[in-house]
Amino acid sequence: MRRALQDITKGETKQMKVGLIYTSTTPELIQLVEQEVIKQLGSDVELLSLEDASILAEVREAGYVTTAPAARLIGMYMKAAEAGVDAMLNLCSSVGEVADCAQDAARYLGVPIVRVDEEMCREAVRKGQKIAVMATLPTTLEPTKNTINRVAREMGRHVELVDVLVDGGFGLDQEQFKALMAEYAGKVAGDVDVILFAQGSMAYCEEYIADMYHKIVLSSPRFGAVALKEALVAKGVM
User: Fold this and answer.
1) How far apart are CA 106 and CA 185, in angstroms?
2) Which of 86, 116, 195, 213 could make a disulfide contact with 224, Cβ separation 3.0–4.6 Å?
3) 3-class SS of residue 188
4) Cross-referenced InterPro entries, in alphabetical order (predicted)?
5) What is the tens place of the pLDDT at every residue in 134-166?
6) Strands, DSSP E only, in 11-129?
7) How many domains does the chain have?
8) pTM as predicted
9) Contact 127/97 with Cβ under 8 angstroms?
């Protein structure tokens, strides 16, 4: 009887499945995100990647998140939940506030929606008062600043934010982009405590900029992967 019960229990073991929700991708971003998630969750995790590039395109055109792209993003969350994911990681900071508004539905469904950038923003507030926020898109800059200010209030701290809008980054190869990021970071490095990258696609520049200016530099994929693991632990599937 004991052996049979063990066999039944073993047979019911379910592979963990997580959703990766993108509104824009690059090969470098996909590789980095998957690497960080697997580092935290193990190589047996099943990854379901969903992407709708039209969401970010419409947000960029309008300058803010309008109804139609927000609705499509929420539809992506529902599609991932319907596909049986245990949790999902929202990977676009431009639409991070859509993830915030979907949290009541996520709790009801029992499928956490984790923002890739929220824990990074908390770490920035923990590490310094004056924070440079670097982005190539104004539509990413403002929501990220909103998140930093929100978590700072929750933590009972005051922060000062410095905008660093990196112009001309699209279409550059990695080395050219790193050089451009270094140029813009250099304009503020002497005046801030922390340099925060608002876009996950910037993450490969993190160590380069930190070594160059001897500053705390933060990018989101590694923080998002840790937060995803914490959500799965809290849910009881890890």
Assistant:
1) 37
2) 116
3) coil
4) Asp/Glu/hydantoin_racemase
5) 999 899 999 999 999 999 999 999 999 999 999
6) 17-22, 46-51, 87-90, 113-115
7) 2
8) 0.90
9) no
Q: How far apart are CA 98 and CA 69, in angstroms?
A: 10
Query: pLDDT band at 38, cuts 50/70/90?
Result: very high
| Rounded Cα distance, 21 and 98, in Å | 12
Calpha distance 178→206 (Å, rounded): 9
CATH of the domain at 211: 3.40.50.12500
Question: Does residue 10 form part of some domain?
Answer: no
Residues 21 and 86 in one domain: yes
**CATH assignment of the domain containing 86:** 3.40.50.1860
The residues with which 17 forms a beta bridge, in sequence order, are 46
Cα–Cα distance between 24 and 37 in angstroms, integer?
Answer: 18
Q: Indicate if the pLDDT at residue 2 is higher than 80.
A: no
Range of the domain at 212: 118-219
How distant is the alpha carbon of residue 30 from its chain centre? 12
